[in-house]
Each structure stands twice: as structure tokens, then as C-alpha cells.
Amino acid sequence: MAVWLEDKRLVKQLLAGNERAFDQFFDDNFSRLYRFALTRLSDDRDAAREVAQITLGKAVRKLHTYKAEAALFTWLCSICRNELSDWLAKQGRYRQHIVLTEELDEVRGAVESMRSRDQLDPDRHYRRVELLRLIQVALDNLPPRYG
User: Fold this and answer.
1) 33 close to 55: Cβ distance less than 8 angstroms
2) 112 SS3 class
3) Smallest Cα–Cα separation from 73: which of 127, 19, 146?
4) Alpha helix ranges (H) inside the chain
5) What is the pTM of this model?
6) DSSP of 16-42, one letter per residue?
7) Which of 14, 107, 123, 136 has its CA 20 to 30 A from that of 130?
């Protein structure tokens, strides 16, 4: 079981009332949570800001329950998911039917045509897989404020 030592250290400082630790906690996580919420709230910036703030407030009150078995941001995202559901329910914004972008005919056609070309050419497929891996590595190594 992985233990997220830096996150655990930060939480310990937060629980001790360290103001700098709170500033770091907020600076490292607010913009990431905002973007996490924004994509799930149809780009409603005010709602995303509100949900991110509510999430951080609830997280601060529940910090004593954080066990560092997952990254602190992962833990925050689980709280945020619950807050998103609550916020949408309060706003009456649940939709009866959600259309995923990948279900649109033109998107499905484009994806299928890319797949067939890649499957026919192993070199092209390898380059595509490697490019996707490198992009993921680059995203994973961004500083928290760019996450």
C-alpha cells in the first residue's frame, strides 16, 4: 500500500494549525479542483468555483480522516464528486439523458477511421501509443497549479 508522505506531512501541519500549510494546501488544490468541477458542470464557472470552495471547506473539516492511502488530490476529488452531485441535485440540474461526445456519429466515425489506419500500420500505432504515453508523463509532471 502506497503512502503519500508529502501529503501526510502537509495534513499533519494543517491539523496543527500551520497557516503556511493552509496557504499551500489551497494554492496547490483550488485551481485543480476548479478545473475538475468545471468540466463536470458544463463550463459553469461560478458553479465550479462554488463547488471547489465547498469541497476545500469540507476537506479541511475532515482532514483528520485522511490516511494518505491515496494522493491528497485524489481524496479531494472523491469529496468533490459528492459535492458535485449534491450541488446539481440542489440546483435541479440533473439531466434525464446525457449525450457523451464519443457517441456522436461524426466523432465515432473519426475515431474508427483513426483506429483502422493505426491497426494496419504497426509503426504508426506504436508512435501513437508512445506519443500518448509521453503526453501523460508530461501532464503528470506539471506543477500542481497547472494540474
Assistant:
1) yes
2) helix
3) 146
4) 5-15, 19-40, 45-61, 72-91, 105-120, 122-140
5) 0.61
6) TT-HHHHHHHHHHHHHHHHHHHHHHTT
7) 107
